[in-house]
Amino acid sequence: MSVKKDQTQIGILGGGQLARMLCLKAHEAGWEPHVLSPSPEDPAAQVTALWHKGSIDNRTDLSHFFKNVDIVTFESEFCDVNVIQSVARENKKVTVAPSLQAIGILQDRLSQKESLVQCGLPTSRFFEVSSYQDLQKLYSQFPKGCVLKRRRFGYDGYGTFVLKSKKDLQNLNPDVFELLGGFIVEEYIPFKRELAIMGFRNASGDLVTFPLSETYQENARCLWVKGPIFHNKALFLKKKLKKYMESLNYVGAMALELFDTGSDLIVNEVAPRVHNSGHYSLDGLTIDQFALHLRAIVGIPLKSPKLLLGGYAMYNLLGQSKKAPKLSFSSEAHLHWYGKKENRPGRKMGHINHVSSDPDKSLKILKKSAKEFQL
Amino acid sequence: MSVKKDQTQIGILGGGQLARMLCLKAHEAGWEPHVLSPSPEDPAAQVTALWHKGSIDNRTDLSHFFKNVDIVTFESEFCDVNVIQSVARENKKVTVAPSLQAIGILQDRLSQKESLVQCGLPTSRFFEVSSYQDLQKLYSQFPKGCVLKRRRFGYDGYGTFVLKSKKDLQNLNPDVFELLGGFIVEEYIPFKRELAIMGFRNASGDLVTFPLSETYQENARCLWVKGPIFHNKALFLKKKLKKYMESLNYVGAMALELFDTGSDLIVNEVAPRVHNSGHYSLDGLTIDQFALHLRAIVGIPLKSPKLLLGGYAMYNLLGQSKKAPKLSFSSEAHLHWYGKKENRPGRKMGHINHVSSDPDKSLKILKKSAKEFQL
Q: How confident is the model at residue A220, as a pLDDT?
């Protein structure tokens, strides 16, 4: 169909679990979600009648997609901003949110870092580095060690190299610069734990934030989240986050991944989208991150999220084999399954949430109930 | 597609808002919802890739539908049980839940009444009546007046005639017996308020119930629900409901519509499905009626629903014109919209929920926020 309907038509670029959960919440609110993705078996393609086969980097596919929607949004910052920009120019009635300018800045770790520094957010020292020789020269600047990060398309640890010793540096394959393009190198931050915080902003400047959460990574992949976390720098950071989103004239959901050094909160990375650290909100808050992102991009007043009970936890269900998973429904946990047709070790297949007066109690319940799944 | 997938394929007969909310919750749990309905614009057809065009009373459509699913369930008891039965016989691997036997008993007010009496549930005196003459003879049996109800296909007041005086009886068009087929006549029960209660049972006999809720009808259509309601007959009635569901070997969600006379709770009608009186559970309980119905028919352990806060309320958004509705998102209420393409006076277009420590406070908030919608 290429005729627009009465209801707001929301176009989501990508068909993964984040797009799926955005679709489900769009249906609930009466907005019609369109999905652009390669396969009808993609998690989001299964949950709407308005799936469009195609690639988010293909000009023709994008052109057709833009003609069917009122608003275009992203489930990932890893897209070809120039192609989307040129299609957007030909479809001026379509709102793109977050803006392609913001996505462009944030999809590149170098410009992302620069934007953080410009706005006064605490983040680790960094340099652009484009060759092994440069890296060797810069290494002495980082007595505590450093982290080499690919400028683009790095996620869940892909394209990230922790260099804590000269030995690590020697073991690094110099060809990565040839193979993976531009990098930044940043100071290694010894942290007590990793935290995350999310903000949501609409075009009128209406802005709300989530509580601070702890996020636990295993093999560079998020395993669990719990919260709320109290930290004496939380308020300072929330203010900075608001200022940051305003400075980018940002519209939609944004997550900051943080290092907690004990005394300080240091921004590790920025995700310009709904985020794994916010999945608990589907059950733990009075409004969830998907509904808030949609309200933000549609341009209606946001609702300030409140805790339903004192605490919450989320546990990712990661694939452990290639066998068809066996789900568990016997636990106290609230299951959110993504409908992925292929199981793979480490793949995010779903997540479970628990809400109670005590985050640690909730996390304990989830760890137990995760064992009941055969992944 | 006519090949079954790994995940449980759930077939829903009908495409209205109840089917839509069942689909959304099936997606969440990783079951694949199929919908059989006439139009791709039906509320449920919009929210799944597995919509099948057809009529739930058409043998050919049903045959094709049964070949695609593992379980078949209903969004309405008003179906042709014989046609579905004959298709089910040819697809023995497909589970039908609730059973067609139970649906058959409950879709007919006469056999429904008889089943209630058999099981000792309190309900009003009644007689079968098939002609105006019979009705005139029986009228004297009901000094407080009576209610004439069509045996089949009566809902939201359609096919129901309240006769509180001889005059009402005289004004009744005798042709209704010709036009609408068989009827029952039952004693008119003067009630203080109307209540409802829901139960959920799986094939293993696992059974849970919802709290008692007050339901307020306007022009025989549910306008709002609030709860929990405390009544000294509540426990007695819950026990009877359990016994009733067991006696029917019932699998799925069931709602009892009740009259509260002050001292007693009297069963008015039985709905063998998810029910408007349970919509609040999407936000007010630790598990909602749609998820529980699905767990029951899939045959996994049920979860006992707990209140998230002390109280809850639900307010139906009923059409008031034929104009495209304007939704409101500015309130505290949680909107659940059904995506209906045509607005009509009295049509259920969506509902809003609110949860707080006080049902009356929640209802007050919803009444205010309902005014912000232009329906």
A: 86
| pLDDT (tens digit per residue) in A234-250 | 999 999 999 999 999 99
Chain B residue with CA closest to A35: the answer is B49
Q: Which residues of B202-240 are buried (b: 16+ CB within 10 A; e: fewer)?
A: bbeebbbbbbbbbbeeeeeebbbbbbbbebebbeebbeb
| Distance between CA atoms of residues A202 and B217, nearest Å | 38
- Say what the pTM is: 0.94
- Interface of A to B at Cβ within 8 Å reads 5-7, 20, 24, 27-30, 32, 40, 45-51, 287, 295, 300-301, 303, 308-309, 324, 327, 329-330, 332, 334-339, 341, 350
Mean per-residue pLDDT for A281-293? 97
Distance from CA of B300 to the nearest CA of A (A): 7
pLDDT (0 to 100) of residue A6: 64
**What is the per-residue pLDDT across A336-367, written as a single tens digit (0 to 9) for each?**
999 999 999 999 999 999 999 999 999 999 99
**Nearest-by-Cβ selection for A339 from B7, B47, B341:** B7
For residue A129, give how far its alpha carbon lies from the nearest alpha carbon of chain B (Å): 44
- Please name each of the domains of chain B with its CATH number: 10-96 (3.40.50.20), 125-187 (3.30.1490.20), 193-370 (3.30.470.20)
Task: Please state at what angle helix A59-66 crosses helix A81-89, rounded to 10 degrees.
Answer: 40
